[in-house]
Amino acid sequence: MSRQPIVVANWKMNKLPSEAEGYIQEVAPKLAKYPNVDTVLAGQDVLLNAMVSAAKGTSVCIGAENVYWEDRGAYTGETSPAALADLGIQVVIIGHSERRNYFRETDEMVNLKTLAALRNGLMPIIAIDEAVQLESENDHAHWIVNQVVESLKGVAIADLGRVMLAYEPTAAIGSGQAMGPEITQKSLRIIRQTVADMFGQPAADQMRILYGGSVKPTNAYELLAQPDIDGVLVGDAALDAMTFIELVSLAD
Ligand code: PEP
């Protein structure tokens, strides 16, 4: 089954509103050359309004980097999924390893956020991390399977087409050292098999699963050539507009 490749830039907390617009104006006309690759730019909340305005009428899809699990209410400082949808945000990254490690997000919180995103019509990209050094292959598989199962608890099969998973081993993030393509493929196969066990093979076959962790133009092609790697989630390298375009061209 063919799944449309996707390249997601995670700007994290790196760009200013005044920089976001210029980046989008630079990439949008170039992305028109690659209609077979989906692209998402994810920014911190304070950028989202400017990003949505700059991306209007282009193929660029704008994403948030986090969301709260209630739609509205007295939750000072949190971001409502309903507000994101109302603003025109289509995608939200949930459970990034920085959120899990620095802000103590648990699997249960990731699951609540996923359900909230889906309830509000957003497409969640759920990050599956690997924060600890695991002794054996079995431990490694168990860790991944557990995160997938916990994140997707209660997701309706009808909503699954809007869910993406991103395998992001913590040690590879920001290290300059991506995981090798074969070993990454093994982990993604485990993830897809877990989705198949939960929801059936057809649902697993249609789900896009991404890899993230020091992706750059020198390693993206080999990673994307693996059968279960449908896209990449990119931090540092995607801060540069031209490098982002290069990554999209490699995914084409
Ligand atoms: C990320 O934070 O999602 C990420 C993959 O970062 P980097 O590409 O910088 O490793």
From TrEMBL:
Pathway: Carbohydrate degradation; glycolysis; D-glyceraldehyde 3-phosphate from glycerone phosphate: step 1/1; Carbohydrate biosynthesis; gluconeogenesis. The keyword Cytoplasm applies. It is found in: Cytoplasm. Transmembrane segments: none annotated. The keyword Isomerase applies. It is an enzyme of class 5 (isomerase). Keywords: Cytoplasm, Gluconeogenesis, Glycolysis, Isomerase. GO terms for molecular function: triose-phosphate isomerase activity. InterPro entries: Aldolase_TIM, TIM_sf, Triosephosphate_isomerase, Triosephosphate_isomerase_AS. Gene3D superfamilies: Aldolase class I (3.20.20.70). SUPFAM superfamilies: Triosephosphate isomerase (TIM) (SSF51351). Its EC number is 5.3.1.1. GO terms for biological process: gluconeogenesis; glyceraldehyde-3-phosphate biosynthetic process; glycerol catabolic process; glycolytic process. It catalyses: D-glyceraldehyde 3-phosphate = dihydroxyacetone phosphate. Its main location: cytoplasm. GO terms for cellular component: cytosol. Homodimer. NCBIfam families: tim. Belongs to the triosephosphate isomerase family. This is Triosephosphate isomerase. It comes from Weissella cibaria. The lineage of its organism: Bacteria, Bacillati, Bacillota, Bacilli, Lactobacillales. The gene is tpiA.
